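Incident log, entry 3
Record: Regulatory signaling modulator protein AmpE (307 residues)
Problem: checksum mismatch between cached and fresh output.
Input:
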Amino acid sequence: MTLITLLLALALERFLGYMSDFRDPRYLNAYAGRFSALLESIGLRHPGFRLLLIVLPPILLAGWLQAWLSGVLLGLLGLIFGVAVLLYCLGPEDLEEEVNNYVEAVAVGDEARQRRVAARLLGEAAPEAPAERARQVALAAFAESNDRLFTVIFWFILLGPAAAILYRLVHGLARVQWPTLTPTADADEDEVTDDSLARVASGLAALMEWAPARLAALGYAVTGSFDHALVGLRERFWGSFDNLRAGNRLLLSESGAGAVRLDELLEAEADAATLSAAFATVTNHIQRNLIVWMAALALLTLGGWAS
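Fresh output:
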């Protein structure tokens, strides 16, 4: 059932494209913001405790619904529920669409659009030099594939819809700047933010990304140039727990770049056609890795190790 649910969700996502309204994080952020403010107002200020109380209701509800619906109409409603949860949790933005958006911006010479798309993928200001900017975007595509795809799938396979929702929750909460109800005397309330909840959410998200990042990196090596990907795998596989998220992203970027031999694809003076071909190789490689994951799940299902 898990394999069928995943295949249906991935096929529907490919067919329907980016579902911006369905995946709009504003509703989730509004729920978390109000709940966090309520907890803080009654004196529950510890960020870890607040995070626990914020995520518990949605994941308990998802777990109960999955258990209940799986017994209705031979599990058909459970299947539909699982597909809906996956469609919500994947992304939230469409990685391939964003990469294509960057390629189009390069093709038409739209510098501002290139910087905007690159900054969104990188999570910071894009490099000034076009060649380095293109390289960083390609590296970010491999890193983002774990946040948007593989981690959600990993936890859905392991623990079902509730775990996928937990990851999407903490991943989203880590990106939000939360206002605090206790501003300092010399600052306006609206200007004061509390990043303690976001930092705890970011730590939990990075922990949940650790195992799928290693499996995805191995997948890149298997589906590409293993010897070149092995360089990144050897250096980054265990990494450091001091900055777990950065370590996960470096592992994925370097193993993915090695697997497709990115430095050879992106020459210093690459034109738009060369860049387009290079980024097509990157996105195709991510898709090949996904196929390997589905094939592995099919083998586990046939062997009776997965439901």
